[in-house]
Write a sequence for this structure.
């Protein structure tokens, strides 16, 4: 589903964010991406979403080399991903329903279809009764779940999450993670950037650890005792 | 918080999103569906633009006023110019050729010439002014009566005033006809009183150029004003634009409501301009009517026709749309997710 081979990313000014990163994600896999801040986690996600382009190397997503995607096609490329952000990027001038509906409106669904899908997504994250509320009136955990509903509303094959539990207490984090697990059960590839070690350990999924732009670990934590990261 | 719902496994809503082909979801929708949603987005863009325009009345009035001024000022000038030209045309029907006759021309020869002129198809009417009549008229007009009565001989020639048919009023043609009549034996000199007409035409031409130049400048100013307002809208909605781009919104999707906003500002400006021009003309027309009446003229100013109003509305909208287009082109590309 997602494959990196020898990907380098150097930002203007000579800062190497990724140095020869290679990995392969299968469809329906759930993977944690970990590492200190500045290790290249965000850069990796940005390369997948074509917010940044690799300096060299190949990024292939769904069988397509992203280097060949023109600027004009970037929006269409991004529609394959549901993205959950740490600061959830909700729009505070519209209610929960309208926030979740945004990707569908962009893709051009009929309003009937939009209503159906938004309610399904809100039901999924347990916020069906809050669709008319303003995001500002919701708790942090609820806001994050609105963000998740928006990420999954167009049923993307890939879910990317950048520190999705960063601001949440452990109970809420666990709840969010169980949501993600449910998506993987129906075949969504999920890549979660996080430095919450306790959480990652509990989930016992494949972990990729980045250190100074290099992939220093890739596998199950339980099979690797005394790892460096 | 409704935790129960989140734990429920998805029996019905989550049709498996697994797909071999990543773009499949977009291809599944029919063309009809997509057209529907395209128009749906146009409607919602328009609605959003309309709401924005209503939500900030001060901003709306200021921006639209610039468009209104940019449109109404040239419109008023063009209308005034048009009316002047009309006035000019009315005067153009009157110019006469004056054939001054030899002092020694016999009455018989003059009669022959008058008959000839009256039979000429180009001539509408002739008036014979005898030397005596001319002197009497001159005395009356100039007030030099007593001085002239001291003269032994009448110094003025008799003359024939020739009014031409409307088809022969162009200055060039009048001059040709005058030189033709000049050849008549009894005619000493044929005069055409054309200079002022030509000057009038030249001046209106010049004024027209100035008006167009001014209109160009004003429209440019209006474009900048609209562009600036749209730039502010873009600044205020930066976060929204970033989110839209992150979830796969095209530039077109972001641009659409902004272009609608610009167009709406322009349309309101056009409406304002129509009102300004109509009110201004109503005020002016009253006094013009007064002046015309005192000259026993039935001259009426031509105001804003429905077509003119339509042109103003359309050009207002175009200016707004174009201003938004410029602002969007300059500022939207810079806002990208980081």
């Amino acid at each position: 589903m997602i494959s990196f081979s020898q990907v380098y990313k150097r930002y203007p000014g000579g800062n190497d964010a990724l140095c020869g990163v290679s990995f392969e994600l299968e469809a329906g896999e759930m993977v944690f991406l970990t590492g200190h801040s500045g290790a290249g986690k965000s850069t990796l996600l940005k390369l997948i979403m074509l917010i940044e382009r690799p300096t060299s190397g190949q990024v292939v997503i769904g069988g397509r080399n992203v280097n060949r995607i023109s600027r004009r096609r970037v929006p269409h490329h991004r529609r394959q991903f549901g993205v959950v952000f740490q600061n959830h990027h909700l729009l505070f001038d519209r209610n929960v329903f309208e926030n979740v509906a945004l990707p569908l409106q962009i893709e051009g669904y009929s309003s009937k279809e939009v209503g159906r899908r938004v309610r399904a997504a809100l039901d999924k994250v347990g916020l069906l009764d809050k669709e008319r509320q303003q995001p500002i009136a919701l708790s942090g955990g609820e806001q994050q779940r609105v963000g998740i509903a928006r990420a999954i509303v167009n049923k993307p094959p890939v879910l990317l999450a950048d520190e999705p539990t960063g601001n949440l207490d452990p109970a809420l984090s666990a709840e969010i993670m169980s949501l993600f697990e449910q998506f993987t059960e129906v075949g969504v590839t999920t890549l979660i950037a996080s430095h919450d070690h306790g959480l990652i350990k509990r989930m016992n999924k494949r972990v990729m650890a980045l250190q100074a732009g290099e992939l220093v670990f890739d596998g199950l934590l339980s099979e690797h005792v005394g790892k460096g990261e | 918080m409704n935790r129960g719902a989140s734990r429920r496994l998805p029996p019905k809503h989550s049709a498996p999103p697994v797909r071999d082909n990543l773009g499949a979801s977009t291809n599944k929708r029919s063309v009809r569906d997509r057209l529907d949603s395209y128009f749906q987005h146009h409607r919602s863009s328009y609605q959003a633009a309309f709401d924005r325009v209503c939500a900030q009345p001060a901003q709306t009035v200021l921006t639209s006023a610039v468009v209104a001024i940019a449109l109404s000022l040239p419109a008023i000038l063009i209308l005034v110019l048009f009316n002047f030209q009309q006035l000019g045309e009315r005067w153009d029907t009157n110019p006469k050729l004056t054939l001054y006759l030899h002092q020694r021309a016999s009455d018989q020869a003059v009669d022959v010439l008058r008959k000839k002129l009256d039979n000429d198809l180009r001539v509408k009417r002739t008036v014979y002014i005898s030397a005596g009549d001319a002197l009497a008229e001159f005395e009356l007009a100039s007030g030099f009566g007593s001085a002239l009565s001291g003269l032994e001989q009448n110094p003025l020639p008799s003359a024939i005033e020739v009014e031409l048919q409307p088809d022969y009023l162009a200055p060039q043609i009048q001059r040709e006809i005058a030189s033709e009549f000049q050849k008549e034996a009894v005619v000493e000199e044929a005069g055409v009183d054309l200079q002022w007409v030509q000057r009038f035409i030249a001046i209106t031409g010049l004024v027209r150029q100035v008006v167009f130049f001014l209109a160009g400048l004003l429209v440019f100013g209006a474009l900048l004003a609209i562009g600036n307002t749209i730039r502010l809208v873009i600044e205020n909605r930066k976060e929204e634009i970033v989110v839209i781009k992150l979830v796969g919104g095209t530039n077109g999707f972001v641009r659409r409501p902004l272009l609608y906003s610009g167009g709406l500002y322009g349309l309101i400006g056009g409406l304002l301009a129509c009102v300004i021009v109509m009110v201004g003309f109503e005020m002016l027309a009253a006094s013009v009517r007064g002046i015309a009446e005192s000259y026993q003229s039935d001259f009426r100013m031509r105001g804003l026709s429905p077509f003119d109003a339509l042109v103003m509305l359309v050009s207002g909208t175009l200016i707004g749309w174009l201003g938004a287009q410029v602002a969007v082109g300059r500022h939207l590309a810079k806002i990208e997710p980081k």
About this structure: Chain B is about 70% helix and 5% strand. Residues 43-90+199-331 of chain B form one domain.
